[in-house]
Design brief:
The protein is an alpha/beta fold. It has 8 helices and 8 strands, in the order E-H-H-H-E-H-E-H-E-E-H-E-H-H-E-E.
Amino acid sequence: MMNHELSSSQPAAIRGYYRWHAAIYDATRWTFLLGRNALLRHLPIVDAQEQTLLEVGCGTGHNLQRLAEQHPQLQLIGVDVSSDMLARASRPTRKYDRRVQLYERPYATEAFNLSQPIDFVLFSYALSMFNPGWEKAITSAYDDLPVGGRIALVDFHASPSRLFRWWMGKNHVRMDAHLLPLLQSKFRTEYLEIRPAFLGLWTYCLFIGQKVA
């Protein structure tokens, strides 16, 4: 199910960027978006009970599809500002439409009014593109989660190459190790890895943290 809300307030630059990239995203980004499946395997999802996961910046639905396949009790919510990406995401998740909801909206603009709490908030190569806004997104995830809930992140971390950082910036990506300090100040670290990519051209991080207070 796809619901369209608050489209007039969506970041225009990101919508425009993915208007052209959505059709080739899955075919071209797999060489860059490392660690997604590894992070999903580390999520402490309890299959014996119904839980809810919210993915912010769900893109073409790669994570939502895998999670729906692997966890038949898991309720899934995908949020993205790009209607083009959500149109792609609706295809692989269509057969799970009773458990997968897609919303076209910025994160943290209004409450979801769910009948049950969110157990997980997932950011997969999304937070590094929230410039500005990444601090607010992390804080909103903290506010949306109950005590015991978890935030999960896989994203670009840093690069020693100034030229590469500049190029990624042209593609709306910031990668100067800015995400982990705030994440670790708000959530208790349960899992953390920083992995090298492409012979050290950049690193990416995987993080799961629990809200304890």
